[in-house]
Amino acid sequence: MNIEETIFGQYQEMTYHKIILENDHQVSIEVTDLGARIVGFNVPLASGEMVNIVEGHQDAKEVFDLHSYYLGATVGRVAGRIADGQFSLNGETVYLDQNEGKNHLHGGEISIDLDQWNYTIGEDDESVFVTFEWTDPDGRNGYPGNVTFKVTHRLTNNNAWIIDYDVETDKETIVNPTNHVYFNLNANHETILNHQLQIQASRYMPVDDSGLPINEEGKDVTNSIFDLRNGRLLTDIINSDDEQIKAKGGLDHPFILDDNQAPSLSLSQPDNKLAVDIYTTAPSVIIYTMNGNDPNDRERQPHQAIAIETQFLPNAMNFSNVPEELIINPGKAFHSRTVYQLNDENI
Question: Which residue of 10, 21, 48, 267 shows the fewest CB atoms closer than 10 Å?
Fold first, then answer.
């Protein structure tokens, strides 16, 4: 196994770094201290060709120029949308940055995904890893508390990419981090319409025009295009006549994961027999099929990749029953883990 450090580029007189973690099977991941994000997941195919199965930025400048994608970024403090940019904590209303119309999205306009994180590298018998650390200051984007994030990206010798999120605070607050990774398993990075997606979820969340869940309970997937328990091709989903799909131009929806189902999700490309099985401690996942592209982006097209965001439900801090895991205080930390396991007999 091997660890390499290099320069990811410069932006506004700041120099950012890239860390490459490689195992004994020529599988590697590339992560950067700019937002503790993944920019590469390199896999050797049976043909001998090396393919990067995630959409990642080439350098630091591109991250800032094409920020709207959040490609591969650690997103927080709270991933997803918060209605009207506010929530209640201990009987008081907390007002947040309203950076998407009247709503709050992904922690605010300038948040931890654009910060330069500190990092340490390490290796054990079965993996190589890098731990990123950043303390988000009290009051930033409206959030209370100095909140310290530790995000560990780990590559194992059995070809698993593992993310551990550990979050602490000096004042009661809320957190709901995720990684906004986008996958494309095609060697030529054509659209993901030929991919198959399987999700062990009996319920999904219909969303309104702004992307917020319509209700707190979700909807049974039975007899709908959202029933992915046995897998469906993305082309069949994206081109379906379902009103929710048509309104969004594809998937942009939360799924409530079934308990005791492992893996929780599987994404595969039947032609090259490459697949990723995803295991997570998070209770839900947001699936986004890149239904549009940034107007400044001349390379990517709609449905170029699929984002898989493991987290708690969007706007959950405004539900009648707020998940207790979202609220942390000086004596109670947050932890979550997601495993992306390569499933390729040729590696």
Answer: 48
What order of strands is seen across the sheet that includes strand 252-256? 182-183, 306-311, 284-288, 252-256, 203-204, 219-220
Active site (annotated) includes residue 172: no
* CATH number for position 176: 2.70.98.10
Q: Is residue 283 assigned to a domain?
A: yes
180 belongs to an annotated ligand binding site: yes
| 309 given a catalytic annotation | yes
Question: What's phi and psi for 6, nearest 5 deg?
Answer: -145, 180
| Per-residue model confidence as pLDDT tens digits over 217-234 | 999 999 999 999 999 999
Boundaries of domain holding 332: 2-342
What total of structural domains would you count in the chain? 1
> Which segments of the chain does DSSP mark as H helices, in order?
60-65, 234-238, 243-248
In a domain, 347, yes or no: no
Please tell me the pTM assigned to this model: 0.97
pLDDT, tens digit, 9 for 90 and up, residues 144-162: 999 999 999 999 999 999 9
φ, ψ (nearest 5 deg) of residue 197: -120, 130
Work out whether the CA dihedral 304, 307, 308, 314 comes out positive or negative: negative
Q: Is residue 261 domain-resident?
A: yes
Q: Any known ligand binding at 182?
A: yes
Asked, for residue 34, whether it belongs to a domain, the answer is yes
Report the mean per-residue pLDDT for the chain.
96
For the chain, the first-to-last Cα distance in angstroms comes to 15
